[in-house]
Design goal:
It contains 3 helices and 8 strands. The protein is of the alpha+beta class and 134 residues long. It has an 8-stranded mixed sheet with strand order 2-3-4-1-5-8-7-6. Strand 3 and strand 4 form a beta hairpin. The longest helix is centred in the first third of the chain and has 11 residues, at 17-27. GO terms for molecular function: metal ion binding; methylmalonyl-CoA epimerase activity. Keywords: Metal-binding.
């Protein structure tokens, strides 16, 4: 069994970054905590915005990181995934894989994070996140 330490974020793909940033900022009192304009051609060169909404983060992407990395086909706008912090991504992934849970992306390093993506039985993408502090 995997026991997440915390629910960290929800990720959404948008076709209009400015519109959606304004919505979360102006209608849900969100605070923009990070934003970048990239090409969307690589997972480390994306157009995105990170907002703090209530006690969680909302990430808006023009292209999902795993989409830009070529790990999945093009995804439609809307919900992308939930992200949960775990103490050890590799151990959590091994537990889930042993139960036959299908992975979209095996554990990999992504900047200061170690991440993995899997699908729930209903097809929802879920990200496991391990910070550099473990």
């Amino acid at each position: 069994m995997v026991t997440p330490e915390s629910f960290f974020h929800v990720a959404i793909k948008t076709t209009d970054m400015d519109r959606d940033v304004a919505f979360y900022r102006d209608r849900l009192d969100g605070e923009v905590i990070d934003r970048a304009e990239g090409t969307g051609d690589r997972a480390d060169d994306l157009t995105y915005a990170a907002l703090s909404v209530a006690d969680k983060r909302v990430y808006l992407f023009g292209t999902a990181p795993y989409e830009a990395a070529g790990l999945t086909d093009g995804l439609p706008p809307g919900f992308l995934h939930f992200g949960y912090v775990v103490a050890d991504v590799d151990a959590a992934a091994a537990d889930l894989a042993a139960d036959g849970i299908p992975f979209v992306m095996e554990p990999t390093d992504f900047g200061p994070l170690r991440v993995a993506f899997f699908r729930s039985p209903g097809g929802v993408r879920i990200e496991l996140i391990e910070t550099s502090g473990g």
